[in-house]
From TrEMBL:
Cofactor dependency: adenosylcob(III)alamin
EC number: 4.3.1.7
Top-level taxon of origin: Bacteria
Species the sequence originates in: Rossellomorea oryzaecorticis
Protein's pathway: Amine and polyamine degradation; ethanolamine degradation
Cofactor note: Binds between the large and small subunits.
Known function: Catalyzes the deamination of various vicinal amino-alcohols to oxo compounds. Allows this organism to utilize ethanolamine as the sole source of nitrogen and carbon in the presence of external vitamin B12.
InterPro entries in the cross-refs: EutC (IPR009246), EutC_C (IPR042251), EutC_N (IPR042255)
Protein name: Ethanolamine ammonia-lyase small subunit
Similarity remark: Belongs to the EutC family.
SUBUNIT field: The basic unit is a heterodimer which dimerizes to form tetramers. The heterotetramers trimerize; 6 large subunits form a core ring with 6 small subunits projecting outwards.
Residues annotated for adenosylcob(III)alamin binding in this entry: 195, 216
This protein's UniProt keywords: Bacterial microcompartment, Cobalamin, Cobalt, Lyase
Length: 284
C-alpha cells in the first residue's frame, strides 16, 4: 500500500468521524480521483504542557515520537497519520526495488544475486551473498582486474536510500579516489544482494579493497538511509569484524556528498595500512 493511498484512507476516516454519519454516494463520488496534500510538521501536540519550550526543543532535535500528545489512550489523528505514512514509506523502501529509470540514468551495469524474489532475499540470507550464474560469468568476462578499489551499489533493504543518496555520493567518492590516483574498477549495481557478496566480487576482480554502498534497514525515523561497508583483501577466513562500516548516510545523518569525500579518505588510509575492520582500528 503506497503513501498516497494511506493518506487518502486516513483523511477519509477523519472526514467520516467529523460528519458523524454515513456519507452519501455523492460524497463518496467526490473522493474519486481527488489529490491530497499533506505536510509533516514537528509541532508540540501535548495539551497544556508544563514547559512548552522544553518539549519544543526536544521535538526539534530528534525524530523520536515525543511530545505528540494523546486522545484518551490513542494517538491524535495527525500523529496517527504521520505514523501510517512513515510505516508505508518503510515498506515501500524494502519491497518496491530501485526504478529501472534510475539505473539507466546512473549508467551502471546491473547484476543479480541468487535471490529470485524479495521473499527469498529476506528469508534466505545466503541467496543474497552470491551472484547468480549469468552475473558471475559476466563479471568474470567484463570487470577490470587487479585494481585498487572496486565499488558495488546494492538496493539492500532500502531502494529509497539508494535513489536518494547515490546520485550525490557516488560522484563524490569516485572523484575523490581519482584525485588520489587510486585505480578503480567499473562500479556495478547488484540487485537483492547482501554485504558478503563483496567477497565474491573481490575474488573475481582481485582488487585490494571492495566497498559496498547498500540500503539500510528502514525505520520510522527515515527510510532513506544507506551504509558503506568496505574490506581489505577478503578471503576464506574473512569474518564480520574484518569489515569497516560507515552508516546513517542520508540527509538527516551524514550528507551523501560529505560521505563520498570521507570514504575516499578512508579508502586511501585502508590501502596504506593494508587492513580494515578491527585490524584497521587497532592501527589507529
Amino acid at each position: 500500500m503506497d503513501i498516497q493511498t494511506i493518506v487518502k484512507q486516513v483523511l477519509e476516516e477523519l472526514e467520516k468521524a467529523e460528519q458523524k454519519k454515513t456519507p452519501s454516494q455523492a460524497s463518496v463520488d467526490k473522493q474519486v480521483g481527488k489529490d491530497y496534500m499533506y505536510e509533516k510538521q514537528k509541532l508540540v501536540r501535548v495539551d497544556n504542557p508544563s514547559d512548552h519550550e522544553v518539549v519544543e526543543k526536544a521535538r526539534a532535535i530528534t525524530p523520536a515520537r515525543i511530545g505528540i500528545g494523546r486522545t484518551g489512550t490513542r494517538m491524535k489523528t495527525k500523529e496517527y497519520l504521520d505514523f501510517r505514512i512513515d510505516h508505508a514509506a518503510a515498506q515501500d523502501a524494502v519491497f518496491k526495488g530501485v526504478k529501472e529509470e534510475f539505473l539507466k540514468e546512473m549508467k551502471l551495469p546491473v547484476l543479480q544475486s541468487k535471490s529470485e524474489s524479495m521473499d527469498e532475499y529476506l528469508m534466505n540470507l545466503d541467496s543474497g551473498r552470491q551472484l547468480d550464474e549469468s552475473s558471475r560469468k559476466w563479471a568474470e568476462e567484463n570487470l577490470s582486474k587487479n585494481k585498487q578499489v572496486q565499488i558495488i551499489v546494492s538496493d539492500g533493504l532500502s531502494s529509497s536510500g539508494i535513489e536518494e543518496n547515490i546520485p550525490d555520493l557516488l560522484p563524490a567518492l569516485v572523484q575523490g579516489l581519482k584525485g588520489k590516483n587510486i585505480t578503480l574498477g567499473e562500479t556495478v549495481f547488484i540487485k537483492m544482494s547482501r554485504v558478503w557478496i563483496q567477497d565474491e566480487i573481490a575474488s573475481v576482480t582481485n582488487c585490494d579493497v571492495v566497498i559496498s554502498l547498500i540500503g539500510e534497514r528502514p525505520g520510522l525515523a527515515t527510510s532513506k538511509s544507506i551504509s558503506a561497508y568496505l574490506i581489505y583483501r577478503p578471503g576464506e577466513d574473512t569474518v564480520e569484524a574484518d569489515r569497516t562500516v560507515i552508516s546513517n548516510i542520508h540527509e538527516g545523518g551524514i550528507p551523501p556528498v560529505e560521505a563520498g569525500a570521507y570514504l575516499a579518505d578512508l579508502l586511501e588510509d585502508v590501502l596504506q595500512n593494508e587492513a580494515s575492520g578491527v585490524k584497521y582500528a587497532k592501527l589507529k
